[in-house]
Amino acid sequence: MKSTATTVPDYLAELPDDRRAAIETVRGIVLANLPAGYVEAMNWGMISYEVPLEVSGRTYNGKPLMYVALGNQKRHMALYLCGLYCKPEIKKAFEESWAASGKKLDMGAACVRFKSLEDLHIPAVEAAISAVSMADFITAAPKKK
């Protein structure tokens, strides 16, 4: 469900109570583990943690590079972890940590789908978020041609 909110407080205010609590908790986890330099913004209809254009320079799509995003969808909430694709060992460690937790990983291309906080393996999420510096993420990102 794409939001038209332009600020994070407005986005949070429009969420149903149960989802607001979960999104606020995950937001706190993201902010506590986010490497230096990334900024929180509203982009793509969700909360986005991204590299400002003035730091990355021109990008392939003209938008800031999204490192992490957090959104409310119709049937679930989603945490987008784009840093997992910077280095194969980061994604492998994430998947192994999640498997060791005994929890089912419901994952698309870069999104982890969850219906409640209990669905998440928080240590794997924290490690994935803290794994990629902004400089490394910029280096790994697709370039403007």
Sheet with the most strands: spatial strand order: 1-2-3-4-5
Q: Total domains, how many?
A: 1
CATH topology name, in short, is Aspartate Aminotransferase, domain 1
Terminal CA distance reads 32 Å
Note poorly predicted spans.
Answer: none
Portion in helices: 25-40%
The CATH architecture designation is: Alpha-Beta Complex
Helix tally equals 6
**Structural class from helices and strands?**
alpha+beta
Listing every helix as H and every strand as E from the N terminus to the C terminus, the arrangement reads HHEEHEEHEHH
Mean pLDDT: 94
Task: Summarize this structure as a short list of keywords or feature phrases.
alpha+beta, Aspartate Aminotransferase, domain 1, 5 strands, five-stranded antiparallel sheet, 145 residues, single chain
What does it look like?
- The structure is a single chain.
- The protein is an alpha+beta fold.
- Helix content is 39%, strand content 19%.
- It contains 6 helices and 5 strands, in the order H-H-E-E-H-E-E-H-E-H-H.
- The protein has helices at 8-13, 17-33, 53-56, 88-101, 122-130, 134-140; strands at residues 39-43, 46-51, 65-72, 77-81, 111-114.
- Strands 1-2-3-4-5 form a 5-stranded antiparallel sheet.
- A hairpin with a 2-residue loop joins strand 1 and strand 2.
- The longest helix has 17 residues, at 17-33.
Write a compact overview of the structure shown:
The protein is an alpha+beta fold. The protein contains 6 helices and 5 strands.
Structural topology:
Layout: H1 8-13, H2 17-33, E1 39-43, E2 46-51, H3 53-56, E3 65-72, E4 77-81, H4 88-101, E5 111-114, H5 122-130, H6 134-140
Helix pairs in contact: 2-5, 4-5
